[in-house]
């Protein structure tokens, strides 16, 4: 074949493109499990932070999570438990929701709110730790891209710890929701989830009206406010679950499902001789 012909050039280009595409596809398939594991460990580390669990930098994240988690469940918007099998004995099969899954649940809930007849299934994760803290996620839109977070809540429905992440907020400004937790995320500690958490400038914690408020980051008011909207929206999603949980704490019998109540039958009394 004439190597200087147009036919040769076209055939050579096609073969080169096919080979490179095949190599890239193989590399993507080969590396996908590792990438998914890295995303899972990063997510778990954020959940552990919200649960107030500290660990060494070289620690095995999955082992720490398995040792500290009591159970992980999925609930719907009515507060009913749908699944409690997210924790398994196989450490590699531990399940946590990724940001894409949280986004999908957010979209599903908003569809149901817009159309009550919508039958889209909603499954919201709750991570319950042995130290008594329950961690719930949140996901929303910041100024330049997605933002997300994990909120650690104790038995009296008070926030113990919060973690926030972002994809494209401005470094030194909106990115401070992640980079400087002491100046923003930590301010959510002590806030009640049963009330709206207000985020804005000029907040004075000593003022009665600001008891459940958080001071926004200077120069990043939009990102701060968006984070507040996200937190309040997702806590609203979980409100029925925490309401039922609080009711269970006050009265154990109210926790019983209809099936469990049917099993409780009065035993006939035996006559004494």
Number of strands: 8
Poorly predicted regions: 256-267, 269-273
Helix content: 25-40%
Quick one: overall form?
globular
User: Number of domains in the coordinates?
Assistant: 1
Spatial sequence of strands, sheet with the most strands: 2-1-3-4-5-6
Number of helices: 6
End-to-end separation: 111 Å
Beta-strand fraction estimate: 15-25%
Run of helices and strands: HHEEHEEEEHEEHH
Task: Sketch the major β-sheet.
Answer: 6 strands, antiparallel
Q: Structural class per helix/strand content? A: alpha+beta
- Mean pLDDT reading: 86
The Cα radius of gyration reads 25 Å
Structure notes:
This protein is an alpha+beta fold and 273 residues long. It has one domain (33-252). Helix content is 40%, strand content 17%. The chain contains 6 helices and 8 strands. A 6-stranded antiparallel β-sheet has the order 2-1-3-4-5-6, sandwiched between helices. A two-stranded parallel sheet has the order 7-8. It is globular, with a radius of gyration of 25 Å. It starts with 5 loop residues before the first helix and ends in a 10-residue tail after the last helix.
Q: Can you tag this structure with a few keywords?
A:
single chain; 273 residues; alpha+beta; six-stranded antiparallel sheet; two-stranded parallel sheet; 6 helices; 8 strands; globular; disordered C terminus
